Every structure is written in C-alpha cells, then in structure tokens.
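Predict the structure of DUF3267 domain-containing protein.
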Amino acid sequence: MHCWKILNLEHHYGTTRIMIMSVIAFLTVFSLSYVIFNLFNDEHYTDQLFWLFVITVFAIYPIHKCLHFLALYDLRQHL
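Done. Here is the predicted structure for DUF3267 domain-containing protein.
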C-alpha cells in the first residue's frame, strides 16, 4: 500500500479544486439520474419508505469501512 503515497492529489490539484470537482460531479450525476428516472417512471412519490432511506444512509459508512477491511483481510500478516 506504499505505492499510494506517490499519488498525492491534494498536493497536485489543491483542496479547493478537488471539492469543486466533487460537488460538480455529484450535481451532474444526481441531475442526470433524476431526469432519466422520471422519463421512465410516472408514479406519484410518497414518503412511506423514508425510514428505509434513513437506515440506508446511516449504514453506508460502516458498510464502506467493512469492505475496506475485507479487501485488506488477506494482507493482515504483512501489515
């Protein structure tokens, strides 16, 4: 994992530029997804499953960390 240290994007591009690019990417993906989804789905939206959305949002970070752990699990003897 030492090879990742030579790739310093924050030093190369700067924090501000990285944040601007990530916000632009987020807005672009959200807008395109929303438009495409609405082209194929004409249903009325409700908030009956809002609880599932909240649980999913809070579960994303721990699941993300577990996936990192599983990816490095085979390398545990070398770390």
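Residues 15-40 form the longest helix (26 residues).
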